[in-house]
């Protein structure tokens, strides 16, 4: 679900917000006039005004009977904001208490508590979204070309998670590239700086959130309708994490764009960086900071940092000084003229 905008975060729907904005703009107005401005029926307009009245945002004018006026935004909206902040604080407190209670109960979990069975397409899709929305650090996934209960096209939880700083590592099997929307979805993922790799086939669909929770589907022969196992921290979860890492190591990275087709999704060569990586390395070796490199190449700072981290992983080094040495040794960037 897209993030709330305007005044919807204060509990006002679009009709309420439009009515309030109109009142602020034009001052005292009667119902027929306001209905014309909003292009709505008089009954709906009056109901919106009554709603604003309950929120303390509008009142009937005492000086001009039959007309409505807006309450001062600074006072009225400030009161609503204070109320919402209080409600959020109470919700956070409740969530913290519930989390503590859950941890206490899960300190010595019974074997049957380590795995949940989720049945039904809607339930599986909802659990998949919850895993992503609940992630705070990293989501790892193996993706096949035959989604049953979960479709990437209608999953905006992924975009929200990335917006919160959650890292994504995804391995797709090659048939995904040939699906009608496959390239478009992969382009969108790469555009969000997700790390995506490809292999001929993946052993199973799999999603792992923060290495504490995973979801793997049950096969059609095991259940008559879509179903999945949700696996909590356990030896089984560690095995699933190991499976993902094994597939990830053998997969080829995907990158976005070629000189002839910027919208294309292509496989990177396993042994070296792409053109953008080389530009980043050249500028870093010239002494520029990450921020200066990002500005020079019109990239995001986080994109530059992630690419540098990937290059360090590619070369197996732990410091940027080592990365610079490997860069020269591998011939990725030519040495400058000797003095």
Automatic annotation (TrEMBL):
One Gene Ontology term of the molecular function aspect? DNA binding
The alphabetized list of GO BP terms reads: regulation of DNA-templated transcription
Check the record and name the Gene3D superfamilies matching this protein. Answer: Winged helix-like DNA-binding domain superfamily/Winged helix DNA-binding domain (1.10.10.10)
Highest rank taxon of the organism = Bacteria
Q: Which SUPFAM superfamilies match?
A: C-terminal effector domain of the bipartite response regulators
Looking at the record, the residues that make up the HTH luxR-type domain are 270-327
InterPro entries assigned to the protein according to its UniProt record, in alphabetical order:
Sig_transdc_resp-reg_C-effctor, TrmB-like, Tscrpt_reg_LuxR_C, WH-like_DNA-bd_sf
Q: This chain belongs to which protein, by name?
A: Helix-turn-helix transcriptional regulator
Q: Print the organism lineage.
A: Bacteria, Bacillati, Actinomycetota, Actinomycetes, Kitasatosporales
């Amino acid at each position: 679900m897209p993030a709330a905008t305007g005044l919807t975060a204060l509990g006002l729907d679009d009709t309420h917000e439009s009515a309030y904005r109109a009142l602020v703009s034009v001052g005292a107005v009667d119902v027929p006039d306001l209905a014309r401005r909003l292009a709505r029926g008089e009954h709906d307009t009056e109901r919106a005004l009554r709603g604003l009245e309950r929120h303390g945002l509008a009142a009937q004018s005492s000086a001009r009977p039959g007309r409505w006026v807006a309450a001062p935004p600074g006072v009225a909206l400030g009161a609503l904001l204070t109320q919402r902040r209080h409600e959020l604080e109470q919700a956070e407190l409740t969530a913290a208490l519930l989390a503590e209670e859950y941890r206490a109960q899960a300190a010595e979990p019974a074997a049957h508590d380590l795995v949940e069975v989720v049945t039904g397409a809607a339930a599986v899709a909802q659990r998949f979204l919850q895993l992503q929305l609940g992630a705070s650090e990293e989501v790892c996934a193996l993706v096949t070309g035959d989604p049953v209960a979960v479709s990437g096209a209608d999953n905006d939880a992924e975009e929200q998670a990335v917006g919160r700083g959650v890292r994504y590592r995804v391995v797709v099997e090659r048939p995904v590239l040939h699906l009608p929307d496959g390239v478009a979805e992969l382009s969108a993922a790469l555009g969000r700086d997700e790390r995506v790799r490809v292999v001929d086939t993946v052993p199973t669909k799999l999603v792992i959130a923060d290495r504490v929770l995973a979801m793997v589907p049950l096969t059609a022969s095991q259940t008559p309708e879509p179903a999945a196992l949700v696996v909590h921290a356990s030896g089984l979860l560690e095995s699933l994490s190991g499976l993902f890492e094994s597939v990830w190591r053998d997969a080829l990275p995907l990158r976005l764009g070629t000189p002839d087709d910027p919208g294309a999704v292509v496989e990177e060569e396993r042994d070296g960086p792409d053109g953008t990586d080389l530009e980043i390395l050249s500028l870093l070796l010239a002494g520029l900071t990450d921020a200066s490199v990002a500005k020079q190449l019109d990239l995001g700072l986080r994109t530059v940092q992630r690419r540098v981290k990937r290059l360090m992983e590619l070369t197996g080094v732990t410091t940027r000084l080592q990365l610079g040495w490997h860069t020269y040794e591998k011939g990725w960037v030519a040495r400058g003229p000797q003095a």
